[in-house]
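Milestone M4 deliverable, item 7.
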Amino acid sequence: MSEYTFYPGCAMESNAKAYYDSLMEIAEPLGIHLKEIDDWNCCGATEYVGINLIPAYSLIARNLALAAKTGRKTVISPCSACYLNLAKADHYMAERPSLGEKVNEALAAGGLHYEPGSLDIRHLLDVLINDIGLDKLKEKVVRPLKGLRVAPYMGCMVPRPDYHNRWSDPEHPTELIDVLEAIGAEVVKFPGAATCCGGHMTQIGPDTAYELIRRLISSAEKSKADIMVTVCPMCQLNVDAYQGETNSHYGTDYEMPIVFFSQLVGLAMGFPPEKLSFGSEITSTEKALARIGVDIPEPARAEGKQRQQEGLPMPPCLRKNTKKTKKSEAAECKSQCTEEAKA
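Output delivered:
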């Protein structure tokens, strides 16, 4: 049994609850003992580092400092955005000493310190492949998913940037494919496997987001996939929750379910679907899983609604002198962020 420090991230308590539930079912039988970081905080998601660099990395590094205090070397994050943020903070604090000093000055206010490079930040998929191994995973399979055609959606934040060469290829990673094949699923060719789902563009620029989501679903359908499978809460949320809005926007009628890889691993290991939170998704997996003889509760279906006409405004940078025009404030904000990034 291998023991790991566990950083769940905010999504695992909300929209990605199915990810958390299924992980909790499969972890111990696979020999993964997770010890959650005490008093962890949000990693800041994807936007904060573009708004105010030092507070953003201080927010992330607080989790690293808390993890380092446990004495365990490896930190697991199942969430792609959390994994990337933790890895970036560790990398840039080491690469840019002045950034590391400023971040540790902020951490010192809470009695914390983080020495960059003292932890291994790893994604759950990496640990399953390289620590547990595909052979052990195959040994645990009691219900192979033969006949289920799966589109493997890795997303853009896990395989790149790859600071420690953990992944097979930044554009065409094979790790998720390997896991899905190990549990007996039929993996289809999926050109969009490492492309972006749009992230928070659903709130900032819906036109862009709907097009990225449409491309993903269209690619999966053209490959005759029954279901998409991902490692990322944001990817799952966008393709699932915004599929109805994408249909409304384009006049399409896509019904492509998307679930977390841990849910399919759990099915193959023999766990009942309700234990893995099947049925909590918006786009039903009922038809897809019926192909392999699995019955699930039918989820409540959300109708696609029309997009809002404008995206959310970006918050201004914090300023001591607020007597500035919006144009000059935006220019100064950009300049400050550029200078902080160079520091």
